[in-house]
Amino acid sequence: MNSFYHSTRSKLDSVTSKQAILRGIAPDGGLYVADWLGQTKMDLAAVCAQGFHQTARQVLGILLPDYAEDELAACVEAAYGSQWDTPAVTPVTPLGADWLLELYHGPTSAFKDVALQMLPQLMSVARAGDGRDVMIVTATSGDTGKAALDGFAGVPHTGVTVFYPEGKVSDVQHLQMATQAGDNVAVCAIRGNFDDAQSEVKSIFADEALAQRLAASGVALSSANSINVGRLAPQVTYYFDAYAQLERAGVVKLGEKVTFCVPTGNFGDVLAGYYAKLLGLPVARLVVASNKNDVLTDFITTGTYDRRRDFAKTISPSMDILVSSNLERLLYYMSDGDCELVASLMADLGEKGFYQVPEGLLAKIQEVFACGRADDDATRAEIASTWNELGALIDPHTAVAKSVLDAVPADGTVRVCLSTASPYKFSSDVLAALGQDTSGMSGFACMDALEKATGTTAPAQLSGLRDLPVLHKDVCDRAKMGAFVESSCARVFL
Ligand SMILES: N[C@@H](CCOP(=O)(O)O)C(=O)O
């Protein structure tokens, strides 16, 4: 069996998983995919009898086959250690009749930590055989940025540059990034939205002249976004581990199907669930939950992906995305590897702003994926009812998913709602959703009031932000992002 990755848009260029991780994105702008995905299955009975670490080693062993077992074992130990506030890493807890998969127990209080505590380990192993310095260039709508900064800060021969949309992340998300210390980090706000940042980052990766100038100094660029297969693969683990927790608790019988509801903008988190299904996890449905930027929900309903719509700023900012990168991978797998089709759909998206998939392809997608949307009012109502009726304090992204899950007709399956961030990253919106007047209150006053109102405690890494100096104040236009990356490389590596 071949164990290579290639682009979603062409099969000509085969690379190992280490090379795919180092590159981040394929040279033709496609995303790395593997035709052998799904040929090797996880042993579900074994998964149910073991913990998160062992499952992580096995998932990564399948998805990243050119890493040696001992390399992966070391990566897993380093990624999932005492920086997590629970040894379970991603515990599953009851949520009324459903279940909550808590993904926010890592150092930056968001699900991104599961992959971004791992990616620097994977990158370091891959880099050892390559020799170049690596600058990680990342676009964020709020959570990926801080998780990438935390993961890569201080990693030898590696730098990290993060771009976020000015004024479009929460106060806490902003401070998490703006206070990040480290000689190898750079943070810059951009005038625009997340899509502007992500599109420009992709243009930077495709800029051959820039690549040559950097190569002359021994520097290569890579990505910490879910376009990088090294970001995606670690996220598969928590789907299996959640299933194992439910099986051990007697909630599901071995082999019984489970539904997962995932709040998603860039489609990475829910695609990891699809990878888990391909690796043998009994998945009934993957429910895609959108906020007002409901381009994915429209697509799964109609087969037309149309980004020509107003970009909405919502109280779930990490999902404020209209160009959803990882859908490209799903199109590849669901079209049985039709690179030509994927390339033409992506060309349509770039040139016309929309594409329409063939009916048969849509039907295949709808067999696996359900969808729904929740606007800000529904999100606030869900935060309030989940707290008042179930005693669970959830963040706005989780509330979007919970609201969507509540609206999906019950089919008798056990249902798991992915909880992607700590509510304290969005203290003022969560406090307001609970009915408190937050006018005139600072973000930290809201955090304190939320603790008082609920008897819960903000993670120390969030409440401690108030004592840290702001180190990053750069703001630039989209057109200047390439120059910012180049100057970051010069500062970090030369
Ligand atoms: N929701 C993300 C946006 C980028 O998505 P990614 O999963 O591709 O990194 C964020 O919070 O930054």
UniProtKB/TrEMBL annotation:
It comes from the Bacteria. CDD domains: Thr-synth_2 (cd01560). The keyword Cell membrane does not apply. Residues 5-80 form the Threonine synthase N-terminal domain. InterPro entries: Ser/Thr_deHydtase_PyrdxlP-BS (IPR000634), Thr_synth_N (IPR029144), Thr_synth_N_sf (IPR037158), Thr_synthase-like (IPR004450), TrpB-like_PALP_sf (IPR036052). It is an enzyme of class 4 (lyase). SUPFAM superfamilies: Tryptophan synthase beta subunit-like PLP-dependent enzymes. The keyword Amino-acid biosynthesis applies. PANTHER family: THREONINE SYNTHASE-LIKE 1. Belongs to the threonine synthase family. This is Threonine synthase. It comes from Paratractidigestivibacter faecalis. The gene is thrC.
